[in-house]
């Protein structure tokens, strides 16, 4: 019994078209093609992530999702998001709403880190300016003189200081301790 190759192909196509998986797959492809305006072949490639045309379809689908989010009031500047390359990568890996949340979170974290760096730099500059305003010894390499420790000095040293103060007072001067 010889069968025509075309007849065999038609029988296989008929069996395939009645399979539930094939029917569901066709519905997915047709819905994606209708939503994006792309052809069914590009929509099938997009579902499989196999071809460069698939990325274009995914990007078009993501752009439409962003426009819907903008119409709902959840996104202010769609063009700004789409212009940033850091936002485009997650769009290929997840739905637009999730990519938007992830991007906004990462951007806010980056801004917080930059703000903390700016505050740290400002604090460092303030400390350096405060150090500059401290008095420095006249001769470099020589420490500044410390205050006199009257409680622990010997009685002869104390008597010499007392004599110097009395002499200065007798001359009408106001000596500093």
UniProtKB/TrEMBL annotation:
What is the protein's name according to its record?
A: Uncharacterized protein
